[in-house]
Amino acid sequence: TFLNDASVFWNLKTRYQAKLIYTYSGLFCVVVNPYKRFPIYTPTVVKMYLGKRRNEVPPHLWAITETAYRNMLQNTKNQSMLITGESGAGKTENTKKVISYLAMVATSGKKSEKKVSLEDQIVATNPILESYGNAKTSRNDNSSRFGKFIRIHFNAAGKLAGCDIESYLLEKSRIT
Prior knowledge:
β1 and β2 form a beta hairpin. The strands form three sheets. This protein has a two-stranded antiparallel sheet with strand order 1-2. It has helices at 5-17, 43-49, 61-75, 91-105, 118-130, and strands at residues 22-25, 28-31, 134-135, 143-144, 146-154, 160-169. By secondary structure, it is of the alpha+beta class.
């Protein structure tokens, strides 16, 4: 195949018009931010991706997440995901979706009515962090001035065991 900018943009536009916001390009999953909610993050969709290889299901952030999770379990090696893009591209939203998927598939199964679960605490952490150090830009009303390295810990059985987040300042020039 001949890969060039025009063919990539045409493919992304065609898929976006069909409400298919995820597209694979080699090892990468390219996401086009729809700036609206699509019903593609439900427990039913989780079941569709659970235990599947990425070539067995349509392109989706959860296919990438599932692959990383399964590789971690099978190879007992740490896995990484890099979520990148310009301001307003949807990095924070996609990070929340990754954490949410892992919380759904890697839960201990024990949930107390009185106690907030570890899974719920991890999912709730990112919005709290987003409330600090954000600023309005021409593309995004709530653009973060920080980068985040989120490390999610699992026990030997592959269940969520904890999380730590390191933030680092991206734009020192905006600090007064």
